[in-house]
TrEMBL record:
It is found in: Membrane. Coiled coil: none annotated. It is a multi-pass membrane protein. This is Chloride channel protein. The lineage of its organism: Eukaryota, Sar, Stramenopiles, Ochrophyta, Bacillariophyta. GO terms for cellular component: membrane. It comes from the Eukaryota.
Length: 230
């Protein structure tokens, strides 16, 4: 059933995140004071653990410092620069297929004709968005967990700093299909939403406060838009 599939996907995601969790490795050399508070020694050799805690994330002092935010911003920028370049290539390939290759093939097999024929090829421009629109509208309406829009992203950004990211892959696939079929005017909103979900995932995983979560959310969203159009 649908609920069983969702539970299976959630369990797989949890297992993967548990396998990738670096907290036990980072806490291997932790110390504890007389009051039960954990801390790391400030002196000593710069090991891989200490470098990671200093520049990336400290599991004892989870709130990002200015240096850590800068490092994360650089990493997010590089990642989304590469990701959006790949996504742009996929979108352009899908557009070429839907609007160049497919109608040309349908004309070759005789489904469409020239302008003076019984079923002229320009009708494809009407039929394609209509069919895609019907299918995608049904999928959007039937989704058990609704995909957030611009207003929800702005509201969540101000209220809690993060945007729930469970619909990341669904949004990515449907946005790509919508742009390929001619239903969307541009990728700006999908870019902001998907990247904002990614930044929110980082903030939630590293236990950031509202302010730092908001920074990660906006940083990822701006990196995606800049990477796509830059």
């Amino acid at each position: 059933t649908e609920n069983e599939s969702q539970n299976w996907a959630r369990r797989c995601w949890q297992r993967m995140m548990h396998a990738l969790d670096l907290t036990p490795w980072l806490m291997a050399d932790v110390s504890e004071d007389e009051f039960g508070h954990y801390f790391f020694e400030k002196d000593g050799q710069w090991t891989a653990r200490r470098i990671f805690r200093h520049f990336v994330w400290n599991p004892v002092e989870t709130e990002f410092s200015s240096l850590q935010q800068f490092v994360w911003a650089c990493g997010i920028g590089v990642f989304w620069g590469c990701f959006t370049a790949l996504w742009k290539y996929v979108i352009e390939s899908c557009v070429d297929f839907v609007w160049v290759d497919l109608p040309g093939f349908l004309k070759e097999v005789g489904l469409f004709t020239e302008l003076d024929g019984s079923f002229p090829l320009p009708l494809y421009m009407v039929l394609c968005p209509t069919i895609f629109g019907a299918i995608l509208s049904y999928i959007f309406a039937a989704l058990p967990q609704k995909i957030p829009g611009q207003n929800e992203w702005i509201t969540n950004l101000h209220k809690q700093g993060i945007q729930e990211y469970e619909t990341f892959w669904t949004l990515l696939v449907l946005a790509t299909a919508g742009m390929a079929s001619g239903l969307s005017l541009g990728p700006e909103l999908p870019l902001v939403l998907t990247a904002g979900m990614f930044g929110s995932w980082i903030a939630k995983t590293t236990q950031q406060t509202l302010l730092s979560s908001r920074i990660m959310n906006i940083t990822a969203a701006s990196a995606a838009v800049g990477g796509f159009f830059g």
